[in-house]
Design a protein that fits this description.
Elements lengths: L1 E3 L14 H18 L10 H11 L4 E5 L7 E7 L2
Antiparallel strand pairs: 1-3, 2-3
Length: about 80
């Protein structure tokens, strides 16, 4: 899974080099697309912590968060079920 690389906690995103852009994308694109498809509409850079929580609630027993050196905007989640 790929998602915006940010924290669920605003204060941890203050020094993100493209934080304002990511919040804008999250609120104006991600949230509206989610709501249009009857999703949760989390928006506002719901973050790595919430992503891990939701993946675990979905039954994934192993959640790894990785990043690519050339991509400062995204986290990549590798998940497995036992």
């Amino acid at each position: 899974m790929q998602d915006i690389a940010g924290s669920s906690h605003v204060h941890r995103n203050m020094d993100h080099p493209v934080g304002p852009l990511l919040y804008t994308i999250s609120c104006l694109h991600c949230m509206t697309v989610s709501l249009a498809q009857d999703g949760a509409g989390l928006g506002a850079m719901w973050g790595e912590e919430k992503a891990c929580e939701m993946l675990q609630e979905a039954g994934f027993t192993r959640v790894e968060v990785r990043q690519l050196a050339h991509d400062i905007m995204n986290n990549y989640y590798i998940v497995t079920k036992a």
